[in-house]
Structures are given as structure tokens and as C-alpha cells.
Amino acid sequence: MEQQAKVVSIINWKGGVGKTTVTHHLATGLQHLSSDELELFGFEHAQPKVLLVDADAQCNLSISCLTPERFEQLAYHKTPPIGTLKDLIEHYLKNEHPQVDVDDFILKACVRSKNEKVYEHIDLLPAHAELIHTDMDIAVYSRPYFKEHLFGSDIYKFQMLHHILNTIKHEYDFIFIDCPPNLNYITQNALYASDYYLIPAIPDRLSSYGISAIKNKVDELNERFQSSSKEYSHTKLIGIVLNFIREYGNQPKQTQENMITTLKRTLSSDMIFNSYLPYGDAITRASMLSYPVFAVENHQGKQSECVKKMTLEFLNRIGGGIVV
């Protein structure tokens, strides 16, 4: 049987919690694991092949991978401009079997690593600012002569990204989708297309509020999608990755530790990743340069090590460990 990528949506309805940071660093973190570490998870010959999908109209993931200048040139000034997720969705919205090659919309080996080098095993399906209008287009569009009795009157509006990714899943080990900070059509498309979802969060009252609601809503969507399409498989929660942790003595400061304890009690201790991303300037400096943290820290740097721990825990959770 042909290898199929594991598809993971990174979601949170609140902005500023590190969705793009986590998405970017999961993909790049996989490239920095040792051969011995990768072999434990079945990657014996090379780093995992990863596709990053930027589904957010803010385009932060595309910018983090390419630089603002290169992304703007490619998406808005190049003649013709590159194809983006917006263009692909439009094709699939209006045609059940569009005559397009998804590979033509993917930027190959474009994610910057260090000193203008790139990661050979990471590709990008970029976003576009007009994705903000795509949700409205999906909402008002009605495909003529749609076979309502097969799937329900509107299920195709949630299946477009699923169909897009199915054409190229055999080319990758992982597909990570950076979702917008809402639960509109594009995010629901991402969840429909995904095997798993991951929730980044900051351990403060405002940022953590609503995590239970996210899980409850995804559970509700799982049931709706399953009832509308018997081919659908439930999207599972991998866990919650905590970000921007302020430490004292290599432990979260007391106020954040108290919030983490509350989260574990309210949700489930298994839902919270043991590893986390600490607050520091290395990731911030790297982001300003459109690099991952490995470009500005050596491999023993604090935040680089935390990214690798998060990546290993991610692999463990989907490879035979905890999936909620």
C-alpha cells in the first residue's frame, strides 16, 4: 500500500498564541532530529518529507518561510503570480473534477534554513491575502446539479481541501496546515482533510479560555461530517502545545504554572504536551529574518532544544503514544 502523509491542522480560535511558530518549527524540527531519533519512528534513510499549507489570509507562514519581500514579489508582483491555496480552492469550489495539477501550486524546497540555504525536504503551498474573501465565496456559492442525496446539500463545501491534498499525499510524510484564528469554512475544510489537530496555547486565562470549546466543536464537526460522508474518518486531538512560557530556574514561573495545573485539572493531563516553547528572543529574532530558531542558535541553544523535544513528543503521540 502506498505511503500516505499524516495531515495535521494547527488551530486555535485566538490569534497570537503561536500557531505559525509551532507549524513552522514542527516542520523544521523534523529536519534537525538525529538519524538515531528518526529511526525510532521509521525514518531510516532521510528526513521526513513535509508540506506546509498556509490557510490563513494573514500569510504569516508563507512570510516565515520565504521573507516578506520574496512572498510579496511571487504572490502579487510576478507576472503571472504564483498559484496559491486561494486559487486552488476556487478551482475545486466550481468544479467537481478540476483540470489542475496541485503540484503546480506548490513551491518546492523553498523554506529558508540558514545563510540563504533551504530545507530540501520541506515544500510550501502558500496563502493569499484574498483568502479572507474565500470564506464568503464558499458560503454563497451553490454548485449546480449537486447530488444532494449522496452527501447532503453542502458537504462538498467542506471537502475541497481534502480533495486537493489527496492528489499529493503520497509525496509526503506529513502535511501541516496553519489555520486562521476562526472556525469558518477554510478551517473546517482543514479539519475535514486532517487526521489530527494540534492546539497551541499560552497559559494565561484569556488565551486558554475556550480550549474545551474547540475540542467540543471539533467533536461536533466529526459527527456531522461522518453522518454526511461515510468515507470520513474522525480528526483526533494530538494535544495542546504551550507557548511563550516564562521560566524561573528552568520551570514555568508560578503564575503560569498555576494556569497549567488548572488546565490539566479542567481538561486532562494527557492533553497537555510535557514539552513546551519557552519565552526568549531567539525565535523572535529568527522570525524577523524568516528563519527557524536553528538559524540563530546552535543546536544546544535553549529554544532549539525545546523545539526538538516538542517535535519528538509530537512523533511519539501520533506514532504510538497519546492521542486524545
From TrEMBL:
Source organism's superkingdom?
Bacteria
A Pfam family (short name) is AAA_31
Q: Which InterPro entries match?
A: AAA_dom, DNA_Partitioning_ATPase, P-loop_NTPase
Under SUPFAM superfamilies, the record lists: P-loop containing nucleoside triphosphate hydrolases
Q: Could you tell me which residue ranges the AAA domain spans?
A: 5-227
Question: Could you tell me which PANTHER family the record lists for this protein?
Answer: COBYRINIC ACID AC-DIAMIDE SYNTHASE, P-LOOP CONTAINING NUCLEOSIDE TRIPHOSPHATE HYDROLASE
Could you identify this protein by its name? Chromosome partitioning protein
The uppermost taxa in this organism's lineage are: Bacteria, Bacillati, Bacillota, Bacilli, Bacillales
